[in-house]
Amino acid sequence: MLLYILGLVALWFVYRWCKELKRVSNKEEKYVYITGCDSGFGNLLARHLDKLGFRVIAACYTEKGEDELKKISSDRLTTTHLDVSNSESVSKAAAAIKTLVGVKGLWAVVNNAGVAVPSGPSDWLTIEDYKSMLTVNLCGVIDVTLSVLPLIKKAKGRVVNVASVFGRISPFGGPYCVSKYGVESFNDSLRLNMAPFGVKVACIEPGFFKTNVTDTVILKNNLQRLWDRLPQDVKDDYGKAFLDQGMKGLDDRFKVFTDSDLMKVVGCMEHAVSAVHPRTRYSPGWDAKFLWLPLSYMPTCISDKLFLKSNPKPQISVL
Ligand SMILES: NC(=O)c1ccc[n+]([C@@H]2O[C@H](COP(=O)([O-])OP(=O)(O)OC[C@H]3O[C@@H](n4cnc5c(N)ncnc54)[C@H](OP(=O)(O)O)[C@@H]3O)[C@@H](O)[C@H]2O)c1
Fold first, then answer.
1. Which residues does residue 58 pair with via DSSP β-bridges, in sequence order?
2. Rounded CA gap, 21 and 13, in Å?
3. Is the Cβ atom of 42 under 6 angstroms away from ligand 1?
4. Are 139 and 187 in contact (CB under 8 A)?
5. Mind listing the pLDDT tens digit for each residue in 46-65?
6. Would you say the CB of residue 211 lies under 6 angstroms from ligand 1?
7. Is 176 a catalytic residue?
8. Which run of H or of E encompasses 44?
């Protein structure tokens, strides 16, 4: 009986593998709009899709990002300036894209742009800190998507949203997980809403990868800045040792978890854009697959115990 079940499971994996091999045709006629192409996954995806023959519209936050990308890509790739937190900038980019793609519409948008700071314990942050990240990571994704959705419906194309495995579980405080849970929710409702129009919506949920988002120098500077501005009573609650252990914990954990092979994520993004049968969710990274996602399915009392045990304790902790 066990062998029979194992055989069926193996057969299902082979069937899925074969089904997922098929790629869409006429890549050279398909426009793909990617946000946050200055660095990290977005930059690598823009170069990768350009090499595969897609017409890439790479949105960069900085002029330097645009110039560097242009230098190393084919003349099929066009760049545009985009600040996803600014609706005027989003509309301007969408208008330029509408003219560029013409009657065929836009094949795909990849909502990749994102920030990871300010990040810290929830009571170290202000509502302005939350708003600043939500404006980029969540409202930016929604704004960019809505701005080009009519063009995507025309092409019966795709929306690819880069969330995070921290859109499935919240092991630390601050707006990052809040924003990524929001992206997951927007992604899921959009997938249902767009299905009747032949538009496919996919979500990428990476674990830890080596980019600016996981740069420990940036993250530690951010923690120090938040600590320095805390009122004395909150500093007394936590104690300086909490900050020191937090900084050390960042170094130790990121050394273990952070994967430098960005192609694991970019390969998933490429599949979501170019496969005939893309998945609804991709969770690249061994930590996402074998740690964070399984933890997210566990009873809260178990995951809480684990996180509380591994996190530094405030000076006046009752635990
Ligand atoms: N790295 C990871 O471990 C990891 C894990 C899960 C999810 N993610 C997600 O993956 C996505 C890409 O991040 P990454 O890891 O590749 O880091 P990254 O190199 O920092 O890429 C983020 C990109 O977004 C751009 N950006 C920042 N603010 C923007 C704004 N207001 N408007 C337009 N663009 C803006 C950045 O431009 P500048 O470089 O000029 O600031 C950068 O090009 C993010 O959504 C991130 O949350 C990353």
1. 34, 79
2. 12
3. yes
4. no
5. 999 999 999 999 999 999 99
6. yes
7. yes
8. helix 40-52
Per-residue tokens: 255:
């050394």
Q: Is 83 in the pocket of ligand 1 (CB under 6 A)?
A: yes
pLDDT in tens, 83-127: 999 999 999 999 999 999 999 999 999 999 999 999 999 999 999
* Radius of gyration in angstroms for the set of CA atoms belonging to the chain, rounded to a whole number: 21
Q: How far apart are CA 66 and CA 56, in angstroms?
A: 13
| Domain segments of the chain as ranges | 25-210+260-310
* Beta strand spans in the chain (E): 31-34, 55-60, 78-81, 108-111, 158-162, 200-204, 281-282
Catalytic residue among 31, 33, 176, 238: 176
How long, in residues, is the chain?
A: 319
Extract the tokens encoding 15.
Answer: 């069937």
Q: Does domain 25-210+260-310 have CATH number 3.40.1080.10?
A: no
Select from 244, 231, 208, 254 the least CA-distant residue to 41. 208
Q: How much is the pLDDT for 2?
A: 83
Q: Which residues are CB-neighbours of 298 under 8 A, at least 6 positions away?
A: none
Q: Tell how far the Cα of 9 is from the centroid of ligand 1, in angstroms.
A: 37
What residue spans of 156-299 are helical by DSSP H?
A: 175-194, 216-228, 232-238, 240-257, 263-274, 286-287, 293-296
pTM exceeds 0.90 for this model: yes
